[in-house]
Design goal:
heterodimer; A: seven-stranded antiparallel β-sheet; 3 helices; 10 strands; B: alpha+beta; about 20% helix
Chain lengths: ~180, ~190
Amino acid sequence: MRLTALAILLGAALTTSPAAAAWHGYISHPLGFAFAAPGELKIEKGTYRGAVAGERPTLTYRFFENSIEYKAVVIDMTDIANDSATLLGEAEYLFQDNKKPRMDVFGRVDRQYGRKLTVDLPNNGGRMSGAFYFINGRIISLQATVLPQNGDYDTPQMARFVDSLTFFTVRAADDAIELPQAPK
Amino acid sequence: MRIWMSAALTGAALTLAVAPAEAAWKSYINRELGFSFRAPGEIKSDIGTFRGAVAGPRETIIYKSMDNNIEYKVTVMSFLQAQAEGATILGEREYMFQEGKKVLADTFGRVEPGKDAVYGRKIIAELPDHKGRTTAAFYFTKGKLIMLEATVLPANGDFGSPDPALFVDSIAFVLSRTEPDAIELATPKLE
């Protein structure tokens, strides 16, 4: 009896899936948005390119948890914001270009209209959900990618991430962590 | 032989007489508003109103024609003071268009190539109560929201007609692309 119980406990310990990290609220008062994500925050600067947008600097808040990559991407378009509708459309188009679209629907967050898209990446590279909005001269895009190592392409975590976006500070979690500014 | 030929000619004449005469498609341009399009029938201009939660109350400029029980309509709204809100204003208009209708298609729209591209959306929706099918395209450029709608009415009945797509796809924003003999449209005065 003791041996059986020990074997069961040992088996359970061995088959336990990786511990899911807690989700935290994050907020950027200067950029005017908040969201929730699991895992450790990393910040990256990058470049976005579009035929209409040209080359634009990006700031990415990145998280990685259980083989799902979570990204909040901020693309600065302040000086060409008058072309916001086309700039947003171009970013959405580029997101799904050469990928297999699975969903393309209206997105609406706190008075802002945008779009939510889900695509399958080429070469069985995983599944990606993205939400795109244009606010205060910037494109704010939340993107979650389930990698093949995870394999659960219907996981609700992707939707949980992209739907956590808010542009009203009052809707952010009380204990939301202030997002750092871009590294110099 | 003569009788057979005569019967064939009479049949052809009757067919031509019975089928509704299709109006010629013409090219129209409004340089002040910055777009051109092609449409059949006689174009009439009008002024209308629109109200959106984000857009607020707006006067609209409308160009419309009717041919073979298909209604063609171009609606223009000015948002010169809210251009940076264009993405949300466009999204709201698209959302309001499809609300309460059965959406058959909702795809990217792109007019002009490369850096001149204007991105928008094209939506096909069935109207409630079997009132027809509307093909629409939505764009926001240079402070103006431009919407093209072609509605095939039940009296026409050919909901797979290529004419609505021909109409919404004829929009041009780079006016050098417009046919040189395009008819100039006057801009109605708003209050």
